[in-house]
Amino acid sequence: MSLLRQFCSKLAPILVNNSVRSTQNVSAAITTNRFFSNKPAPYEIVDPKIEKQEQQDIIKKVNEQVNANQQGRIFAVVHLAGKQFKITEGDVIVVEGYWPPGPGDKLKLDKVLMVGAKDFTLIGRPIVEDGLANVTATVIEKTLSHTKTDFKKKRRKQYKNINFYRIQQTMLRINTIDLSGKLNNPPDVTGTEHRIL
Which GO terms describe its cellular component (predicted)? Predict the structure, then answer.
């Protein structure tokens, strides 16, 4: 008799006994209602007034920090040229591909997806409300990337192709990230009286 058959013949009764024991434990647990019960699970009903009050307290605390400039170092996530960048003041970011602004141009980055500080984070849906976060940047330099190699080969076909290319890059320095205005208090929209919406 092979070693594998001997091992299986000794292991089979142990597995059967353990499976019987485990089914006995489950049936005992079911009869004692430890795992399953006929009663529905108790759910906690949240009072909407209390929840609204908690939200207002949080908004008030954030507004106090913003107005007193106590938020410390601020970070932001901005959408720029099809990509997202996490930035703080003084950062230098590289935007790849063709981008029209030239060196020395000052920019205001409008698509702010998220702004955060030490104690709070404001997440936009999809962007933070207009006028709440102001991010300004300056174009430092427009250059080309290092030379990249595009190598193609098909074996046994006498085909080999090598191309060298460089990508345009624009370097931006983030000047300021400011939180101004009040949270949950967007500016009034004007000039839509004569438009059909």
Answer: ribosome
Give every strand in the sheet of 92-96, ordered side by side.
92-96, 168-179, 133-144, 106-109
Question: Within the chain, what is the greatest distance between any pair of CA atoms?
Answer: 95
| pLDDT tens figures, 24-75 | 444 444 444 444 455 555 555 566 777 788 878 888 888 888 777 767 788 9
- Pair 155, 85: CB distance under 8 Å: no
Q: Count the Cβ atoms, other than its own, within 10 Å of residue 177.
A: 24
Residue 19: alpha-carbon gap to chain centroid: 46
- Residue 115 CB contacts under 8 Å (≥ 6 apart), including other chains: 74, 75, 76, 77, 121, 122, 128, 132, 133, 177, 179
Structure tokens at 103: 């060196």
Domain boundaries, the chain: 7-37, 48-179
pLDDT, tens digit, 9 for 90 and up, residues 77-130: 999 989 999 999 999 999 999 999 999 999 999 999 999 888 888 888 888 888
